Amino acid sequence: MQLSVIILNYNVRYFLEQCVLSVQKALEGIDGEIIVIDNHSSDDSCAMIKALFPNIKLIENKENLGFPKGNNIGVTQAQGEYICILNPDTVVAEDTFSKILKTDNWQLSTGIIGCKLIDGTGNFLPESKRGVPTPWVAFTKIFGLYKISNVFGKYYAQHLSENQSGKVDILVGAFMVMKRELYTEIGGFDKNCFMYSDDIDLSYMVLQKGKYNYYYHETIVIHYKGESTIRDEKYMKRFQEAMQFFYQKHFKKSPFFNLFMQIGAFSFSLFKKNQSKFLQRKVDQYVIFSKEKVQFNLGNKSVILNEFTEFKNDVNSNIEIIFDTKYFSFKEIIAFMNCNKSKNLTFKNYIPDSNYCIGSNNAIDRGEIIQLKN
């Protein structure tokens, strides 16, 4: 078997369904498998997988074991030469895996390959490629110095643009492809880290093996980002603990970093208090891309278009675009989002078989699921 796709889920039933649908399409023509590990979700994620995807291997954990342990359990069941660690709040294009698995991408020194990630509004996610977060590099990130000059751009590997492939130190755990043999040799994700520094740690251990990690921009994956993790004060505390874990494991303890994180946590808390008012958005018009007339009870605010070329953006209106996934491929949808990102545009995908729309209007919110009446 060539590829095993490992998806660790926790309480994101609808995003998981969309993710699996996209992965199934991307695995056509590839000898592959999908393994879903559920970390004791309280929603009906497991029931959905059993009902809609009975041929997928489902592992039901009896408690939330965290990101490292959950993924390690999945990899032990994998049969593929390659594995893909994939978040459930992602959407892959139909040719993502075929491009990533191209023979010329894999040399003896290749460790992990990642790809270009965009959020639910089509904007590039800079964590798609990163450098080793030494205390100084973390300082430039926390205080936004990387925005001033590329001299401070090591955290987000700004020696490469988002549309330029090349070697990087750190890749994000939302999408990682590597040989299963290498994953096993390293020992997988460190089980002592609950979340947040696990992908940094794994990437760094690959570097220590004399391999290099590679950012591949020629395929794009949507990562809704906020759906499986609420970004609040608890998130900041866990992030701080995770970075301290990484430093203590690979470097020496840094009191300077602790001070930076305390200041960063305070600033983050103030930002969160004033954030909600900026997330509110009124939709002036809905644009539906479909080959047939679909009724979403949107009244006279909606217009149906058959082709992407028919769309003309009215920058004076807030427009929500709804893609009918029955007629448009995920690759086409992703390409449109990437090329048409705009402050006045938001996007949702319509999943016709389950009759709901899904998406995210901001990289820091939890996303939105609109369940439609039959």
Q: How is this structure best described in words?
A:
The chain has 374 residues and is α/β, with parallel strands linked by helices. The chain folds into two domains: 3-227, Spore Coat Polysaccharide Biosynthesis Protein SpsA, Chain A (Alpha-Beta Complex), CATH 3.90.550; 281-371, no CATH class. The chain has helices at residues 13-26, 45-52, 66-76, 96-100, 135-142, 180-186, 198-208, 233-250, 255-273, 276-279, 330-339; strands spanning 3-9, 32-38, 57-60, 82-86, 90-91, 110-118, 166-168, 175-179, 212-223, 285-289, 302-305, 319-324, 345-351, 356-359, 368-371. Strands 1, 2, 3, 4, 5, 6, 7, 8 and 9 form a nine-stranded mixed β-sheet that branches. A six-stranded mixed β-sheet has the order 11-10-12-13-14-15, covered by helices on one side. Strand 12, helix 11 (330-339) and strand 13 (345-351) form a beta-alpha-beta unit. Helix 8 (233-250) runs antiparallel to helix 9. The two termini are 40 Å apart. The mean pLDDT is 87.
The unreliable regions are: none
What's the β-strand tally?
15
User: What share of residues are in beta strands?
Assistant: 15-25%
**Main pleated-sheet profile:** 9 strands, mixed
Tell me, what is the CATH class of the largest domain? Alpha Beta
Q: Quickly count the helices.
A: 11
CATH topology tier name of the largest domain: Spore Coat Polysaccharide Biosynthesis Protein SpsA, Chain A
Q: Rough shape?
A: globular
**Secondary-structure content class:** alpha/beta
Share of residues in helices: 25-40%
**Structural Rg:** 20 Å
CATH homologous superfamily of the largest domain?
Answer: Spore Coat Polysaccharide Biosynthesis Protein SpsA, Chain A
CA(first)-CA(last) distance:
40 Å
Q: Architecture of the largest domain in CATH?
A: Alpha-Beta Complex
Number of domains: 2
Element order: H for helix, E for strand: EHEHEHEEHEHEEHHEHHHEEEHEEE
